[in-house]
Specification:
The protein is an alpha/beta fold. The chain has eight helices and seven strands; from the N terminus they run H-H-H-E-E-H-E-H-E-H-E-H-E-E-H. Strand 3, helix 5 and strand 4 form a beta-alpha-beta unit.
Length: 248
């Protein structure tokens, strides 16, 4: 009975989430067409509405920890579900993403992603994708912001492991920007597949930045260690037990 009720609440929340996306896309259409600031107001409003709806409807509270990056940095984050994207976007002032090229053509999402300065890449061509990322990042420096990248390249279930891709290391070296690692436990409550959303406290934690200047192999080792260690800590804090709970 409890699971069925939570399932109903989850469906209601998902409905509200997509309805809010459609309504706010229309509300902010003209401001977004004229200014990039309008687009940032739109995405911040939407992400805060979803955070509120998650808390009220399914009992999923959310929390941002650590100093929020506000300068021109790369944020390298653990990615477990759509919710960690929403939390990061709600927190930082000028978010932009390395995103799959196909998403540019999706209704609403693609339009607003282009307006906030997201960088589309073709993940099927790794070498070309990295070069394209670097060129696009360099070309986009006239629009300062926080470039968000998921080093594992996709959503990873809580408790699962996937190697980190070197693209973030190349960006770190070629752009000369600091990297802010980010850990999360959102996959404990909002899995990458399925409709269920569970009560609890989802956290994204910004960790001490890695200054420019390290060699790429050393940087990659350090980044993976700090993000994985702190994500595991946050998941344990949320009651996650590896093995028993690693279902997706």
């Amino acid at each position: 009975m409890k699971t069925a009720l939570q399932g109903f609440r989850s469906l209601l929340f998902i409905t509200v989430m997509y309805l809010a996306m459609a309504v706010l896309a229309l509300v902010y259409l003209l401001p977004t067409l004229f200014t990039r600031d309008g687009a940032f107001r739109a995405v911040h409003t939407y992400t805060n509405v979803v955070r509120w709806a998650a808390r009220v409807i399914v009992g999923l509270r959310s929390e941002i920890r650590g100093p929020v990056p506000t300068g021109e940095v790369i944020i390298a984050s653990k990615h477990q579900s759509f919710f960690d994207i929403l939390l990061i976007v709600s927190a930082v002032p000028r978010p932009k993403f390395i995103m799959k090229k196909q998403l540019v053509h999706t209704p609403i999402l693609g339009f607003y992603a282009r307006r906030i300065g997201c960088i589309p890449v073709d993940r099927g061509k790794r070498g070309a994708a990295v070069k394209q990322m670097i060129a696009d990042v360099e070309a986009g420096r006239s629009a300062p912001g926080q470039l968000i990248i998921f080093p594992q390249g996709t959503r990873v279930a809580a408790g699962a492991h996937l190697p980190y891709k070197v693209g973030v290391g190349v960006l770190y070296k070629e752009t000369g920007q600091a990297v802010v690692p980010a850990a999360t436990n959102v996959g404990v409550f909002w899995k990458r597949h399925g409709i269920m959303r569970w009560p609890g406290t989802a956290v994204v934690e910004f960790l001490p930045e890695i200054a420019p200047g390290e060699e790429v192999p050393a940087f990659m080792t350090r980044l993976e260690a700090v993000v994985e260690e702190n994500s595991n800590r946050l998941m344990a804090e949320a009651g996650f037990e590896a093995g028993r709970d690693a279902k997706d």
